[in-house]
Amino acid sequence: MMKAQTSVDIHELFAQRRSPRSLDESANVSNEDVVAILEAARWAPSANNIQPWRFLVGRRGDAEFKSILDALVPFNQSWAYRAALLVAVGGESIREDGNPNPTYMYDCGLAVAQLTLESHHRGFVAHQMAGFDADKAGALFQGQRPVIIVAIGKQAAADQLEGQTYDREIATRERKALSEIVLNALPL
């Protein structure tokens, strides 16, 4: 894995994290690792401790995996079928009192970030996908709104991919410079 080129040293989990599409179709995730990955997500910060995230976990070969895979757009289906796990993330956009929850997507994002980092900590990779059919993904949940789908597995060689997917897999990791995203002078 290529390490991110950062302006100062950061924790290895962040520097090494990547969202590859090249996954090892023979790799599995143990029950203990699945629970730990979900447990990390469970302990994410949450506005008013509402914890609006809901997860549907599919293991390659089971009905949930097939349902989640079917909800993805064809481009994502073309590589995500190799994942050991597909995790559909839904969010409760309405609070128990009937009022809108304006922060549910932010909270779900925090939970997915922690799920991602725990996956990487355990030797797996995680790739988040917004490319899914909203109606099909919505049918996976009971009242929650689909937010994202995450593929989790072991990284494989990029040469199993083709075309644009391969090109994106081997591309150099890039991010905007801090000077482009920090609106005031950096405190150096």
TrEMBL record:
Keyword Transmembrane in the entry? The reply is: no
Q: Kindly state which keywords UniProt assigns to this record, in alphabetical order.
A: Oxidoreductase
> Where does the UniProt annotation place the signal sequence?
none
Q: Pfam families, from UniProt? A: Nitroreductase
SUPFAM superfamilies from the UniProt entry: FMN-dependent nitroreductase-like
Using the record's annotation, list all stretches that form the Nitroreductase domain: 15-154
What GO molecular function terms would the record report? oxidoreductase activity
* CDD domains, A to Z: TdsD-like
What protein family does this chain belong to?
Belongs to the nitroreductase family.
Q: PANTHER family, per this entry?
A: NAD(P)H NITROREDUCTASE YDGI-RELATED (PTHR43673), NADH DEHYDROGENASE_NAD(P)H NITROREDUCTASE XCC3605-RELATED (PTHR43673:SF10)
Name of the protein:
Unannotated protein
The organism's lineage is: unclassified sequences, metagenomes, ecological metagenomes
